[in-house]
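>> Question from a student workshop board

For tomorrow's exercise we were told to take the sequence and the ligand below, predict the bound structure, and bring the output to class. My setup keeps failing. Could a helper post the expected result so I can at least see what it should look like? The ligand is DP6.
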Amino acid sequence: MVKSGKARAHTNIALIKYWGKADEDLILPMNNSLSVSLERFYTETKVTFSESYTEDTLVLNGETVNAAESKKITRFMDMLRAKTNTTLYSYIESENFVPTAAGLASSASAYAALASACNEALQLGWSDKELSRLARRGSGSASRSIFGGFVEWEKGYDDTTSYSFPIDADRWEDDLAMIFVVINNKSKKVSSRAGMSLTRDTSRFYQYWLDHVDEDIAAVKEAISRKDFKGLGEVIEANGLRMHATNLGAQPPFTYLVPESYQAMEVVHQCRELGYPCYFTMDAGPNVKILVEKHNQAHVIEQLHQHFEPHQIIASDITRSGVEIIE
Ligand code: DP6
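>> Workshop helper replied:
Here is what the output should look like for this input. Compare the format with yours to find the bug.
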């Protein structure tokens, strides 16, 4: 018996960050987070279950991934088998659609696509809410990639209550875009998983982060309801910087940001002075992502071009489509 399904999921960028787990195994976060889904970056994953397979195999962008690297996937598939009473192993073919060499591949789109492809292959009939909970078990941010547009991940308190849902923005997403400034990272990488764990456990600033994140979420939702770009931007920029500040308070302290990241932030400040409102956010790496209204996108890119190579600058629309079954 062979069963297969294929799905596409877009990646998302958090405007209010998920940073720290309350439960490492279930991937329950310490705080709610809120993201936008991106049109241009996505993953397509086909999963095939068959009695003839004796293990899970992952083929990523045409290349078989070795056992050590695919350990996370195997754990995810073991969890899925336990949940669904399936004994079948899988053959997973996944392709990341991200501009070449940009290093923007994301576990968020990967696990959202995989969860949805499994749902299709095994004919589970799970709702988007259930898929969001399932994708969360692979990578926290994947719970948000089940949906398009603005998405909030409710932290919940157990496996059932922690999931994401879309926020109605009356199609405001169509007027917005995100510009990536891709910055080469020469230093040793700290994964988001390791970084958030060290910070939660040791940072002197972590409690301050937790104490203020709910007001940020409320302010962002209020700004979305009024389509208030400045209001939205000021909150998300402060929230992103505060997340990065918690890392500086960790023992030992660390940072994801490099001089070029600060240079990109400076260009954002200049753009605002020139009358082109835009706001930055950064994740577990040095890249800077800039939220802008589409009618100012070309102006901001022009300013960035004075400091960065053309290949370092990639713009994407915000997509309102969530995960979808393809083929
Ligand atoms: C900084 O979702 O990659 O991008 O749950 O351990 O897989 P795991 O972490 P992941 O962390 C994302 C952290 C972030 C902020 C965010 O996306 O909310």
